[in-house]
Amino acid sequence: MVRPLMMVSMMALTTALGACQTTGPMKTDPGAVAAIAASEAMSSIPQDIHSYAQPNIARVTHVALDLTADFEAKSLSGTATLDIAAQRGATEIVLDARNLDIRSITDSNGQALRFTEGRDDPILGHALTVQIGEARKIVITYATRPDAAALQWLTPAQTAGGRQPYMFSQGQAILTRTWVPTQDSPGIRQTWDATITVPSDLAVVMSAESLTPNGEPGPNDQKRWRFAMTNPVPPYLIAIGVGDIDFQAIDERTGVWTEPSRLHAAHEELIPTAEMVDAAEALYGPYRWGRYDLLVLPPSFPFGGMENPRMTFATPTIIAGDRSLVSLVAHELAHSWSGNLVTNATWADFWLNEGFTVYFENRIMEATEGRDRALMLQSLGWGDLQDTLASLPPADTRLKLDLAGRDPDEGLTDIAYEKGAAFLRTIERIVGREKFDAWLTGYFERNAFRPMTTELFLEDIRTHLVTTPELEAQLMMDAWIYQPGMPSNWQPPVSDAFAPVDAAALAFAQGGSASAIPWANWSTQERQRFLAWRPPVPPASGRWFSDAQLADLETTLNLRQEGNAELIFAWLQIAVQHRYQPAVPTLERFLTTQGRRKFVLPLFTSLWGQGEWGRPIATRLYAEARPGYHPVTTNSVDAVMGRPQ
Ligand code: BES
Ligand code: ZN
Question: Going by CA atoms, what residue is nearest to atom 14 of ligand 1?
Answer without folding.
Answer: 305
